[in-house]
Amino acid sequence: MDKFTTLTGIAAPLPMINVDTDMIIPKQFLKTIKRTGLGKHLFDEMRYTPDGREVPDFVLNRPAYRDAKILVAGANFGCGSSREHAPWALLDFGIRCVIAPSFADIFYNNCFKNGILPVVLPQDQVDLLMDDARRGANATVTVDLEKQEITGPDGGRIRFEVDAFRRHCLLNGLDDIGLTMQSAATIDDFEGRQRAGQPWLWA
Questions:
Q1: Sign (positive/negative) of CA torsion 65, 70, 74, 77?
Q2: Domain presence at residue 21
Q3: SS3 for 74-113, per residue?
């Protein structure tokens, strides 16, 4: 998993509440177990017409936001079914940070496991960042995880809080496998002792 330290990029505004995981990545794209290739289907039913043409008014289809790295969204983002494909699709598109007043719990947890930083802020602060994001190509925002600070295009700063353990994992690029591998020597030692003392388990 890639480390998340400081991210500077265009912030795209999505002022919708209750954006569920089926809106983020519709069910017909869940057949794959690969984490790549889903970005083109992110928000598929809002980005494209039934015959596959782009909807020009959808935010991620506008020229200013095609390379957005940050999404500023409404409350209860990521609700609905617990599909991990939702953060996969965001990440594959290039979104590394989602800022909202609240998130669905499972989606929130899945973000950390996949290298995305979900930031919870009071509604009034989200509104300020939403206004910044509406500036289009001038909506450059910096998210500093180490300082736990967001800097807007005018230099204004907003503090945010992240659980210390999750912050450590993102800063060091540690997913569940990475965390386990930090104890590889201890695991190897245990298996060696078990193999010697209980060889029938290894037959």
A1: positive
A2: yes
A3: CCCECECCCCCHHHHHHHHHCCCEEEECCECHHHHHHHHH
The structural domain count of the chain equals 1
pLDDT of 160 reads 98
- Judge contact between 106 and 131, C-beta under 8 A: no
Which residues of the chain, if any, have pLDDT below 70? 180
For residue 141, being part of any structural domain is answered with yes
Quote the pLDDT of residue 174: 87
Residue 123's CATH number: 3.20.19.10
Inside any domain, residue 186: no
pTM comes to 0.90
Structure-token match 């930090």, residue found: 182
What's the confidence (pLDDT) of residue 44? 97
Residue type for 183, please? S
Range of the domain at 154: 6-172
Q: How many residues does the chain have?
A: 203
Tens of pLDDT along 69-116? 999 999 999 999 889 999 999 999 999 999 999 999 999 999 999 999
